[in-house]
């Protein structure tokens, strides 16, 4: 088949299909945190190429974008039905754009939530120049609400506030916002009278928010490991914004950040939560630094099972936490995948996570998957065997196959090029039927310091050595702008929405509309 014929057939299929209406209401696309949209019927390898696919336009915004864009199909806004894209910035503004319109006519509404906190206030350089809405918001599709956490500096006082907004209008709901505050009993050095309190100055709200069983969960860690801090997970009733549960990872110690490079806490169908604590004190009883945690949400929030590497003390000493990649639940199994700074992957059984045992025999499997720095990742739950995509510092992007409940430790495929730094964003798109229609989208940069130019890549997900397209092939048309660290692209209904640090959200898609072919005439045998 010629390449031209392949493109024409792909275009015809796209035109003939009803548009698959998908929603992306949460970070990493779903509660398993796979970063995959397997209902994408428009973008296929045959038409993701330089002459048919590229940058359509960019939505201007007022700050850097760390949060993943969220997407709601067929929402009634102002009497019209629209596909709406929600974009949060570090300047504390949330935008609602018509996802099918160019910038001149796309803005439905926007809201600012107050002055963000200058990074100089915190005294660290990892994030510049300000901290506003950092963690990805979460959407309640049934309730028509979007929840976000804004970090503000008011008259010299640092605050975190939880907002619930109407999806269609941006109006505050449920009497919000509410200021985030919490305390637990404990003997931590920063406690007072046996009580450890949440201090907004010491905490960084980094992971994307989680909504499950009517509760919004908010997690936080540190500003560049500046003491004192803890890992906190707080639960708020989604219909009243009343705090319903509080968990501190180190109530009798310090550290234990829950940051996960922005990836969300995962949740299973039984209402259990899965989170990973970074460097911190560990005792297997009340302090959970360097641990994978399974948390029950019955009668509050508490650890019911866990896994801690036997080398946790050394990991602490060298700032080599285990939780950068965040938890990924493999759909249809009891398996959990996670990984950290040293490039080790941990494959765990969620029904028996393994605790801390010499030789890590409690884990299903652990080995070094990348050279160093496992941050970006995605999981394609392929029917013939799941594939886990990951990259490290100075590594190519690798694809590892799960088979028989374990990883094959030799990569299934890898990209031809290696990338200088590991802060990539990844997403998978496919139709969920034909494996050959599955694409891995990756944002990369070849320079470590920020801000730096970025590149969006599209790879054949079945063979990463085949790069379909990237934004530098025709840079004058498709250039991404400044790379957004850890930011995950959102793929929905034939477009790819990519965060940047250039104060814009860049939109990629088909450069010209597909020709709409008439329905074929079906003739009977007598004709």
Quick take:
About 5% of the residues lie in helices and about 35% in strands. The protein has about 525 residues and is mainly beta.
Count helical runs: 5
How much helix, percentage-wise, in residues? under 10%
- What summary fits the major beta sheet? 5 strands, mixed
Low-confidence stretches: 1-18, 514-527
What is the global morphology? globular
What is the mean pLDDT?
Answer: 93
Q: How far is the first residue's CA from the last residue's CA?
A: 30 Å
Number of DSSP-assigned strands: 39
Indicate the structural class: mainly beta
Rg for CA atoms? 23 Å
Strand order of the largest sheet: 1-33-34-35-36
- Proportion of strand residues: 35-45%
